[in-house]
Amino acid sequence: MRTLEIKNLHVSVEGKEILRGVDLTVNENEVHALMGPNGNGKSTLLGAVMGHPKYEVTEGSVFYDGQNVLEMTVDARSRAGLFLAMQYPQEIPGVTNSDFLRAAMNARRDKPVSLFTFIKEMEKTISALEMKEDLAHRFLNEGFSGGEKKRNEIVQMKMLRPTLAMLDEIDSGLDVDALRIVANAINDLHKETGMSLVVVSHYERFYELIEPQFTHVIVDGRVVLEGDAELARKIDTDGYDWIYKEYGVAPAAEAEEKRPVISLGSCAVGAQMRKDDNR
Amino acid sequence: MTLIRESTEISLGEGYASYEIDSEKPLKLKLTGTGHSDAFIRILNCPELTVTAEAGEGAQMTVLFWNGNTDKMHASEKYTVKRDAALKVAYAEVEQADTERNTDIELAETGASAVLSSAVLTGVRKEFNVRVASLAPHTDGRMQNYSVVLKGGRYVMHATGEIVKGAVRSESHQTSRALCFDEGMTSEILPILLIDENDVQASHATSLGRVDEDQLYYMQSRGLTPKQCTALISTGYLMPVTQVIDNPQLRDELKEELERKISELCSM
């Protein structure tokens, strides 16, 4: 059984510690919801598992299917079955979606996919995601609306067929119809292949469609609470305040605000502004 | 396809024509364009090439030079664009042999226009000294230069857009971009605008630099190795040069050739 095992993961970004000891286990076929206030480490966790170069793992381990993920390059992680649908997909001018996807599919095969099979598969996927037919020939995400970029992430996921997909706010920027289309595509692949899912979303509406069995709440770089689907529903109704109170935690953004930030530059600007006001 | 082995004069009429230059000695080519002509010129071998060309009144003349020289080449080219004629000159440089190219395009009469494009993939020395000059009113000169500079490469692009006094309502625009992936190469882009008339429009844009780290991460996160990313991005960067020719079959062939060259170089 393919399992993602994250143990005591500490991650820093530009010298600042964002994750402070995360433990998470995701087994084959499981669907996990990752929740928490903004800026508390959800995206950092997914990015660190995928291998974003800006995220420095300072402690802990990540294993997938028995392999040490932290020792693998980003592309090797992808070929090992991991997939990250990104919150802000990059635009790559000059590279068409079809050239990119075909290269990505061939990167994980011994024999290259035939052009005929590729075109058929691409057409089927574009139609399942109800995207425009010219998608294949457009440059990768260039000039795409926010919703189109998110759907295109799912097009890639369906074509590459990962064994574990991490979805980082894939529902943001999607209208109600697009949300249903994307959720159906994710559920279909999950049912067909047993792909595991780690899903970051702020919205219960999306979780209702994806039906996670587990919910994890990350506050200030740690998993402070775990539960089932009911926990996601409670957070949707009641917010996070009750968790801060009951578990004695404070979100990272609040901790940041309490710290006084003084610099000579800001004093000088402030002084100048006051001087100007007095004129 | 017509083979050219010695100095010759070619009259480009309506439609598409292709040529191959194969000469051990310096060669002179005289081109005259009338009507709507598309010419694809593949240089297999030529140490020194001199081109003089004229796009006649009202002509739409396009010439794509595909440099397949495996030895050093020096090219010197002079184009004259007549009244209401439109000239497109494009260069593809993908072989790893030094090239020096001096190109001079003169928009000699009212309504003349020219677009000069270049696509360069290099791990060697490629030097361009190009000038597009507006010598008459209502003329339009444009330059689009794209290069991918690999380890050991030296790319020099001196691009001059000129508008002389009296060439009112003329335009001169240029874009030059050099992309690199690694360390150990040199790129020098010198955009020059020589404007001696007030009622004109002119601009230049230049960029030199590496591929964005986040873009590489995004592509790698789908399973592509850094070399495969380099090859895909380079192809996308250089392919537009083939679009000057209105011949889909040739474009497909050139794309395949470019991809093959790029993947060869990127896997070194």
Strand and helix map with partners:
The complex is a heterodimer of chains A (about 280) and B (about 270).
Chain A: E1 3-13, E2 16-27, E3 31-35, H1 42-50, E4 55-64, E5 67-68, H2 74-79, E6 82-85, E7 92-96, H3 97-106, H4 115-128, E8 139-140, H5 146-160, E9 164-168, H6 176-193, E10 196-200, H7 204-210, E11 214-219, E12 222-227, H8 229-238, H9 241-247, H10 252-258, H11 264-278
Parallel strand pairs in A: 3-10, 3-11, 6-9, 9-10
Antiparallel strand pairs in A: 1-2, 1-4, 4-5, 7-8, 11-12
Chain B: E1 2-4, E2 8-12, E3 15-22, E4 27-33, E5 36-45, E6 48-55, E7 60-67, E8 73-81, E9 86-93, E10 99-107, E11 113-122, E12 125-134, E13 140-149, E14 154-163, E15 171-180, E16 186-195, E17 201-210, H1 213-220, H2 226-238, H3 248-266
Parallel strand pairs in B: 1-3, 2-4, 3-5, 4-6, 5-7, 6-8, 7-9, 8-10, 9-11, 10-12, 11-13, 12-14, 13-15, 14-16, 15-17
Helix pairs in contact in B: 2-3
Please identify, by name, the CATH architecture of chain A. 3-Layer(aba) Sandwich
Largest Cβ-defined interface: A-B, 32 and 22 residues
- The gross shape of chain B turns out to be globular
Unreliable stretches of chain A:
254-279
- Please write the string of helix (H) and strand (E) elements of chain A: EEEHEEHEEHHEHEHEHEEHHHH
State the major sheet of chain A. 6 strands, mixed
In total, the number of strands of chain A is 12
Which class of secondary structure composition applies to the elements of chain B? Answer: mainly beta
> Strand order within the widest sheet of chain A?
6-9-10-3-11-12
SSE succession of chain B: EEEEEEEEEEEEEEEEEHHH
Q: What gap, in angstroms, lies between the N and C termini of chain A?
A: 73 Å
Q: Evaluate the radius of gyration of chain B.
A: 19 Å
Radius of gyration of chain A using CA atoms only: 21 Å
State the helix count of chain A: 11
User: Strand order, biggest sheet of chain B?
Assistant: 1-3-5-7-9-11-13-15-17
